[in-house]
Amino acid sequence: MTEITIHRVRAGEGDLLGQLFHRSVHEGTLGAYDAAQRAAWSPEPPSGPDWEARLFDCVTLVAWAGKLPAGFMTLDPETGYLDLAFVAPEWQGQGVAAMLYGLLERCARRHGLAQLSTDASELARRFFLKQGWQDGPRQEVTRGGVTLHNYRMAKSLKPALERAA
Question: Residues 32, 39, 76, 129: what is their CA dihedral angle, to the nearest 10 degrees?
Answer without folding.
Answer: 0
